[in-house]
Amino acid sequence: MRIDKIEDNSKQNFMDLLLLADEDVNMIEKYLYRGELFALYDDDLKSVCVVTRESAGVCELKNIATYEKWHKKGYGSLLLNHVFSYYKGKYQTMLVGTGDVPWIMNFYQNNGFRISHRIKNFFTDNYDHPMYDGDVQLADMVYLSKDL
To answer: Which terminal residue of the chain has fewer beta carbons within 10 Å of its beta carbon, N or C?
Structure first.
């Protein structure tokens, strides 16, 4: 297994996987090129994430996605642990914003994030169509934070 930091000129090659976590290409492009993209390989590509600088002491996990057939194999957590180590000492806090969906909230909380705040109607105000995770319609963005 290896985790690579991907350079700007090939980030677009990971769009199919990034779209699993954020189905709007325009939203992804708002953060993709100002962020750092990491890819986890175990023989082949399993998982990616994008982290952006938000302020001197704060970075944000903007996207993390694992191909569905590889869910519950630990790849997302391994990738998170890598970026936690990578950014430790560079930032004090990592944020992540997500929909209020139990399995996603559990994933982040199991990886050390704690609920910080929420932005009401983020998904309904910022996407041109209703957003769903399974049968749950997303409305508010829930922010979680982790001390690095």
So the answer is: N
Parent domain of 63 = 2-147
Check whether 10 has a pLDDT greater than 80. yes
pTM: 0.91
Contact 78, 88 (CB under 8 A): no
| CATH code of 133's domain | 3.40.630.30
Separation of alpha carbons 57 and 81, rounded Å: 19
Neighbours of 114 (CB within 10 A): 10
Residue of 98, 80, 99, 90 lying closest to 137 (CA atoms): 99
Contacts of 82 (CB under 8 A, 6+ apart): 3, 38, 40
Q: Are 113 and 144 in contact (CB under 8 A)?
A: yes
The residue type at 4? D
Where residue 122 falls among pLDDT bands split at 50, 70, 90? very high
